[in-house]
Amino acid sequence: RKAVLKGLAQELKDDLLATYSACQTNDVYEYTPDAVGRRRLKNVALGYLMELKEQKLFRLCEEQFNSASNMTDEIAAFIFLVDSNASGREDAISAFYEKWHGDELVLDKWFSAQALSTRSDVLDQMDALNEHPDFDIKTPNRIRSLISVFCGQNPVSFHDKSGKGYKFLARNIKAIDPIN
């Protein structure tokens, strides 16, 4: 799947950049079909472009993350940055956490974005997130946002040949079972 996305991005790079630019707006946020569609299309284009792993495109994503005036654009850029090797990746993770750690529902998005990463270090990140002070094994939404998302929506990393994904799940089932 990743290879197909990258191949499409390579072939359609100019069109994707043009689409991204055409959907960029400084208009005040509005929830209308047209505005929602523009944001969605812009973020789909950005997602494809991020598969190219180019510094210029990483900067474009970082710029969107830093200047987003709505959660749709902020979370999309955040998810793409978390799954990248962009130099601003760690800063984005810290900035998102600092900005939103007081909002439980958005903090769930912070955990989920990291659980979706297919980076080679994601298995170590999952262990660290499992020990994060804001992760509470007794909170169903937190379990869903980290453990469920990783195990159910990240087949590349969960089924890693090392078996660490299965060990992560088994360890968490053992911790959850006595309290559930």
Descriptive tags:
180 residues; 0% strand; globular
Structure description:
The structure is a single chain. With 180 residues, this protein is mostly helical. Helix content is 72%, strand content 0%. The chain has 10 helices and no strands. It is globular, with a radius of gyration of 17 Å. The protein starts with a helix and ends with a helix. The mean pLDDT is 97.
* Main structural class: mainly alpha
How far from one another are the termini? 36 Å
Summarize the biggest pleated sheet: none
Contiguous uncertain segments of 5+ residues: none
What's the order of the H and E elements?
A: HHHHHHHHHH
Roughly how many Å is the radius of gyration? 17 Å
Number of DSSP E strands: 0
What is the strand content?
under 5%
Question: Total number of helical segments?
Answer: 10
User: Mean pLDDT across all residues, rounded?
Assistant: 97
In percent, how helical is the residue content? over 70%
Shape: globular
Q: How are the SSEs ordered, and which strands pair?
A:
Layout: H1 2-23, H2 33-50, H3 55-67, H4 71-82, H5 89-100, H6 104-115, H7 122-130, H8 140-153, H9 155-158, H10 164-176
Give a summary of the structure in a few sentences.
The chain has 180 residues and is an all-alpha fold. It is built from 10 helices and no strands.
